[in-house]
Amino acid sequence: MLNWAKKTLADVAGTEEPIYGPSAIRSVAEDAKTTPYTELTRNDLKWDAMTSTCVESQVFYFMSDNGYVNFTQVIYSNVAGIRTTCQFNCKTMYPDNSKPHLWSTTPLHHHEFSKDKTNFYATDCAVELAEDGNSYTIKSMNDPQCIVNLKLTKTAPGFMAGKDGKTLFGTDLKHPWGSMRHAFWPRCTTEGTIMTKDGPLDFKGKGFFVHALQGMKPHHAAARWNFVNFQGPTYSAVMMEFTTPPSYGATVVGVGGLAKEGEIITAGAITSAKHLKTKQDTENDWPEPTEVRFAWSGTTKDGKPAEASYEGSLGDRLDRIDVMAEVPGFVKKIVAGAAGTKPYIYQFAPKDGIDLKMKIGDEEIVERGVLFSEATFISAIE
To answer: For 163, phi and psi rounded to 5 degrees?
Structure first.
């Protein structure tokens, strides 16, 4: 089949795209060569709310002082400009897995945005950016078993890699047909509660926020993901890395940064994630990571080299998520056969924390903190 016909079919049906090669992607790393990162303004936190195919999300991560790990998420999805849906997800992992994870996912109705597109509203749900642009409040009463009233306040500047955080896709990159963008608040304080059937859970602690836009079909943009969120007493280290399908040359794009109170130490396209040891998942044949090396390597504003790394075990996985679990079986088979997709997310949070090794200029630092990481497999890249 001719490439233009394959592309048309892929856009409509989600099937595998033709092989365009690495020339059909412009990684944000290219932009970051001259502008490593840009600090976020309020304007950079607007929802795009595209009217064409996209998945856009705001995700808030909470590491409470009493050991709870949580992520709370609003997802805006548009399918070919035909249908738009919004979803509110909330997942809480208990200390030492003392209880089953509290997982709540609810469709949202009658969604809308504030005039400046920084606030999101739906029936019984509100995610609002404060007027000073320094905090978010997240409230949801959509699930009586999981009533959310949380606040996240940044304590270091937010950033995006390059000038606008965007990786572009297309054979004519002056007129791209797709994009990927991430904007981060790497270090935050958190407060508030989630009310459960067993009572309130207190989320006073540390946090992290990411606003992500996949301006195309997600499985066309990325075949694999690595996500890292480290929060220590003094330092934070965050990373988002994806590998494109072979259609875009199995290109690796990684962004992230190191921060401490009031300061970005270094940020941009400075990250690397390697799975050093894996074990084959007998349920789906994906190579679940067991040992990893996560690394950051950049420079400070005053030109000092700044590096950080963790190499070691991920411990027992917290969870394995079949992304398509709620899709009817026959639909799942059609999608897997047509698009080569079989998305699973592996989540980890070593129960005793990890040691992050850093070297900033001539200073060597080791800090113990909480790690939450994900390895996502969507489609084969060989």
So the answer is: -85, -35
Asked if 219 and 339 count as a contact pair (C-beta separation under 8 A), the reply is: yes
pLDDT at 6: 36
Is residue 12 in a domain? no
Give mean pLDDT, residues 217-237.
93
Q: Does 331 reside within a domain?
A: yes
Structure tokens at 3: 């490439």
From CA 302, how far away is CA 18, in angstroms rounded?
A: 45
Does 361 have pLDDT greater than 70? yes
Report the relative pairing of strands 199-202 and 178-196 from DSSP bridges.
Answer: antiparallel
Burial 36-75 (b: 16+ CB within 10 A, else e): bbbebeeebbebebbeebbbbbbbbbbbbeeebbbbbbbb
Mean pLDDT for the chain? 90
Specify the pLDDT at position 209.
98
Helix (H) or strand (E) holding 121: strand 120-122
Kindly state whether residue 10 falls inside one of the protein's structural domains: no
Residue 176, classed as helix, strand or coil, is: coil
Give the integer Cα–Cα distance in Å for 112 and 142: 16
Between CA 25 and CA 339 the distance in angstroms is 20
Contacts of 239 (CB under 8 A, 6+ apart): 226, 227, 228, 254, 255, 256, 271, 273, 294, 296
Q: Rounded mean pLDDT of 252-261?
A: 97
* Residue 14 domain flag: no
Question: Is residue 53 within 8 Å of 83, Cβ to Cβ?
Answer: no
Report residue 84's pLDDT band, with 50, 70 and 90 as the boundaries: confident
Owning domain of residue 340: 21-377
The predicted pLDDT at position 283 comes to 86
Which residues lie below 8 Å from residue 238, measured CB to CB, with a gap of 6+? 184, 186, 208, 210, 228, 229, 230, 256, 257, 259
Q: pLDDT at position 337, please?
A: 52
Alpha carbon 81 to chain centroid, angstroms: 24
Cite the DSSP H helix spans in 240-328.
none
Number of folded domains that form the chain: 1
As a whole number of angstroms, the distance between CA 344 and CA 340 comes to 13
Question: What CATH number is attached to the domain comprising 243?
Answer: 2.40.370.10
Contact (Cβ atoms closer than 8 angstroms) between residue 84 and residue 77: yes
**Residue linked to tokens 């939450």:** 372
The C-alpha atoms of residue 100 and residue 106 are separated, in whole angstroms, by 19
